[in-house]
Each structure stands twice: as C-alpha cells, then as structure tokens.
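Notes from the 1:1 (GR / supervisor)

We went over the backlog. Supervisor wanted to see one worked example end to end before approving the batch request, so GR pasted a single chain during the call. The sequence is below; no edits were made to it. Supervisor asked that the structure be written out right there so they could see what the output format looks like.
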Amino acid sequence: MKKNANTLCLLMLAALLLSSCTTPTTPAPAQTAPTDKPAPTNAPVPTETTAPAAEGEQILILATTTSTADSGLLDYILPDFEAETGITVDVIAVGTGQAITLGQDGNADVLLVHARSREDAFMADGHGVRREDVMYNDFVIVGPESDPAGIAGMTNAAEAFARLAEAGATFISRGDDSGTHTKELSIWSVAGIEPAGDWYVSAGQGMGEVLTMANEQQAYTLSDRATYLARSLERLELVVLVEGDPALFNPYGVIAVNPDKGPQIHNDLANLFIDWIISLPVQEKIASFGMEDFGQSLFIPSSALWLEAHPVEATAEPEAETPADAALQITGLVNTPMAWTEAEVLAMETMTVQSTNNNGETKDYTGVSLNALLELAGIADGATTLVFVADDDYTAEVTLAEVQACTGCIVAFRNTGGFSIVMPGFPSDLQVKGVVKIQVQ
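Structure output shown during the call:
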C-alpha cells in the first residue's frame, strides 16, 4: 500500500509540473496594422485591446476610422512617431462609431475620427478632455462607369441619392455606424428617403471592403476620396460620379480620452501624440501623402498651427458653388455648409406649432425643426449666434443657446413659396419672412 501511495504521489507531482509548463490560451492581441476587414457593427467591441506591455515599454492605444488605415496614411506617418518617441502605437481601425465607443468605455487613449457632431457630443458628455482639428478631405459618390442610374456630373448629393433610389440601383452602404455611414444617412435624410429594399445593401464593413463589394457587384457607394484613390491602384473599376457638394466635406479630429476613466488611460501619451500630429512637420507630411501616386494630397492639413502658418490655404477648403435653385442655406461656423432646394426641405420630416403673428392672431404653422437643420450642418466650436437673412436682405439675430432650447422653433413653409422663421414666444422681429440663409457665427 505504501508503495502504491508513493507511486500515486509521484504521478500527481508529474501532472502538476506538466500543467505548469503548458502555455495558457490567451486572446490574440488587437491588430497593430491596418486591416481591410474591420469588425462589422454587430460584432462585440473589444474590451482588451493589447497584450501586456513589456517592462519599460510604452503603448498608446489609438482608436481610429478605417479610412486612415485603408488609405495607407497611418503606415505613412506612424513609424516616425514611434521612432521619435519610442512609444508603440496600437491601432484599432474600426468605424468612427465603434472608435468613439472604445473611448467612452475607456478602452483607448486617443481617437482619430471623422464625425464632427459625434465628436462634439463626446466632448460635451465629458468623455474627452482635448480635441484638435487635424485634416480634411471629401466624400464622393462612386459607381460603375456605365452609370445605369444616370447620376454622373451631378453636384447635389441628395438629388443623386434620390435618383439612385428611384432607379432601384444597387447601393452598398457601410452600415457600420462609421463617420462615412453617418454622412450617408444625413444625405438620405436631406433627400427625404429612408432607404430600404433589395437594392440597398447594408454591409456592416469598412470602407475598403465596401469598395470591393461595390466593384464586384458594379454598384454605387459613398466613399471618402482617400480610400477610393488608394484602392484605385488595385484594379478598382468604379469611377467618381458625384463630387463637389459642400455637404460632402469630411473633416477629421483627434481627441484625448478623459483619464478619469481609469488608470489604464495614458493621458500623457495621448497629449504627446496630439501635439505631434498637429505640429507643422507632421502636417506637412500629411500634405504630401498621395502626391507621388496621384498628384494630389489625399488629406489636407487643417490644424490650428498649420492654418496660422498658411493663411492662404486656410481659406482654400473645397466648396462647390451654391446650386442656382438653392432655397435655403446654412453657412458660417458649421462643420458642413448646407444648401437645400425648396423641394428637399418640403420632403423632410415636418412638425406643426402654434404661434402668434404680428396681427395678434394665433395660427398653426408647419415646417421643419430649426434645430434638426442645424444638426445636419453641425455646429462648430465657438459658435454663439444665429443670423437669419431674408430674400430682401432683412436680417435678425438671436443667440444659439436660445434656439437650441426652443423645441418648437421651425423653418415654416409659406403658401406663396419659400420659408419663414417661426419662433413661438420670441419677439416679432425674429419671425423672419422669406428667409434664405441662416448664418452661424
């Protein structure tokens, strides 16, 4: 019995030694290089993004949109940062929505994204502590050269989308809560269309993958110009059909995540990265990206330091001429200057409010929420005032805060055509008839 007991003890000891030598199964670390196949929207957002850092190693987690990876920009600039600082950058390239979620959950140190209204909300809610402009480019509508829907040469994105829907032309949507997807949905909203049906394909994929799908199916899609041009080197047969609409302007910002989210947030590294990417040498390198292959920059620098050093370029953002049939514009301190035809405004979601006119009569007025229109344009930092401009050059001024607090303020439809500002409870001089422009200052 004693011999058997000793044998058993030896066997148990051997088993313990073997188990201690076995490498445990661990989740694979997040990718540190760009990928053409980011996780779809319905995939779980990762909660562990990096392998543990080696002793003395500093790792910065950058959550960014797929366009910065798919275009090749990150491969072009990040090696310089790592060489200069000794900091390893762990890139998580997903849609802007998922990147923002990573920041909200404290799973990233810094964000590089392109959905200004969502960036502003992120900051307003206290998830971020610093935001800086970095660069911009534009969106384009691409499709087969044969263009069965006949949108080639159009300069109004909403009208082009309406024609695609009318033709039932296959459209591949990112469908991934990205900045591009957000922009696409805003264009459908302006067009007064909720896209649905066999012709509308929600891919839940990144920009590179969606361009591949559209190419294979000879379909249409909305793309940032940088990723489209980068993919055009890979036998992409799609062509740019619609461009130049101010609504297609595409700015990028960098945000430091609030360090109060936990000790895992490297705020010092995030600020070091922000200082680096907005610096003049790096902005110059961004300006050179794409010149060799395409003869044009794929991204235009726009940091405050760059604009201060290049005052001419500061006013050179691409803007199409206002369409001749534009009936209402929003301009000034907005992320995306907007111009709508009367038909486009009439097609939007409406609301009816009661207001007392100059004659003391209380009447019902139907129109579009003023705040909804402002949200489509996106209010830029520093804006405090709205100026309403009428077709007879009459102007009226009101604070932005007052309008944002007014749920019943509308751009009302007039029986004679055109629009009026209706602001229940406000002075009569703000009830502007024949309004044609809203300037954000």
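Supervisor's comment: The chain has three domains: 58-135+250-315, 138-248, 326-440.
Batch request approved.
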